[in-house]
Design brief:
Blueprint lengths: L25 H16 L5 H15 L7 H21 L2 E5 L5 E7 L2 E4 L18 H20 L1 H7 L5 H24 L15
Antiparallel strand pairs: 1-2, 2-3
Helix pairs in contact: 2-3, 3-4, 4-6
Length: 204
């Protein structure tokens, strides 16, 4: 009895061809780099800290009036706490567990300390979550950029400097812009790979 075997191979023309990569124009490449840089800049400040500051600033300063010492003290505490928050949140990171849920933790020299104690980072991925010098650099830049936001806030400026001189006005215009441009260039040149609390998450 003959045994029939199917030795037919799929024809090459039946295999769907992969789409060819369309070359980008110089304008498209420039736009892509600009958008990539903007993506890096969105990681510079925790959005929650900025939102809290912008919400409480008019209340604590009484719309920039600061009638009492208490108002100035509360505004100073708000600026200090927001600055500390920007600094500390730069050391937070996140990862997805086996079920795809996002877990947050704090970077340390030994890896990532996960806030949810029941979940741990896989051993083979511990190295990439370790605390490094670049994290302190990003934390310092985050505080500097927050100071720019505070200097651009009319309520804060009116509270601490209600009648600035002409030199002070020029400084309040030039200094924040200079700090913002410098931090932007440095952050694009040395982007952060962390996706911590208050920072945008990546798909992966």
């Amino acid at each position: 009895m003959d045994v029939l075997t199917n030795t037919q191979q799929p024809l090459l023309e039946n295999v769907p061809a992969l789409p060819q990569k369309i070359p980008k124009t110089p304008a498209q490449r420039t736009m892509r780099k600009a958008l990539k840089g903007t993506e890096h800049l969105t990681k510079l400040l925790p959005t929650g800290t900025v939102l809290i500051f912008q919400t409480l600033s008019p209340l604590f300063t009484h719309q920039g009036q600061c009638h009492t010492i208490t108002s100035k003290t509360m505004t100073t505490c708000l600026l200090t706490l927001c600055g500390i928050s920007c600094f500390l949140l730069s050391f937070t990171d996140s990862f997805r567990d086996e079920r795809g849920k996002v877990r947050y933790g704090v970077a340390s020299f030994n890896g990532l300390w996960v806030m949810d104690a029941s979940v741990k980072v896989p051993v083979d991925e511990t190295e990439k979550y370790r605390l490094r010098f670049i994290d302190f650099f990003h934390a310092l830049m985050s505080v500097l950029v927050f100071s720019v936001i505070a200097l651009f806030d009319g309520n804060v400026v009116s509270c601490f400097c209600p009648k600035p001189s002409e030199e002070a006005k020029d400084l309040l215009v030039a200094l924040p812009i200079g700090i913002g441009i410098l931090c932007s260039v440095l952050f694009v040149a040395f982007p952060s790979q962390r996706h911590g609390i208050g920072f945008p998450l990546s798909r992966n």
